[in-house]
Amino acid sequence: MPDQRLTHMLRAGAAAIALLYAATAWSHSHLQKQSPAADSAQAAPQEVRLEFSEPLEGALCKIEVTDGAGKPVTASKATVDATAPRILQLPLGKLDAGSYKVDWNVVSTDGHRSKGSYRFTVK
């Protein structure tokens, strides 16, 4: 009987730790929508617009767009939309036909960091 009780306690403890870890992971800001869309081929976009699951800390967020050779194509900084704090945007200049990569790094208002990247093509 003592072995069963110990096994039960260990399983309950492991389940509690798993739930705590999952709750922490869910609290991070996740990318929900992006424009231009990942892996899309389209006319040159005017901006990169990323929508996240949590409000963002604008001063701590960044978007960088690079061309196929890895050269940055933007000079301005990304800003959080004043009327929608879950949206990070970056105006783009004229983009030539080719492949581009968007790298993003954000901090949500609860202090959690998230980052990622995706590609799109200009026809």
Which tags fit this structure?
single chain, 4-stranded antiparallel sheet, 41% strand, globular, 123 residues
Can you give me a brief rundown of this structure?
By secondary structure, the chain is α+β, with helices and mostly antiparallel strands. The protein is 20% helix and 41% strand. The protein has one domain (30-122): Immunoglobulin-like, CATH 2.60.40.
Task: Give a verbal description of the structure.
- By secondary structure, this protein is of the alpha+beta class.
- The protein has one domain: Sandwich (Immunoglobulin-like), CATH 2.60.40.
- It has one helix and eight strands.
- Strand 5 and strand 6 form a beta hairpin.
- The model is unreliable at 15-26 (pLDDT under 50).
- It is found in: Periplasm.
- Belongs to the CopC family.
- InterPro entries: CopC-like, CopC/D, CopC_dom, Cu-Rt/internalin_Ig-like, Ig_E-set.
- It comes from Cupriavidus basilensis.
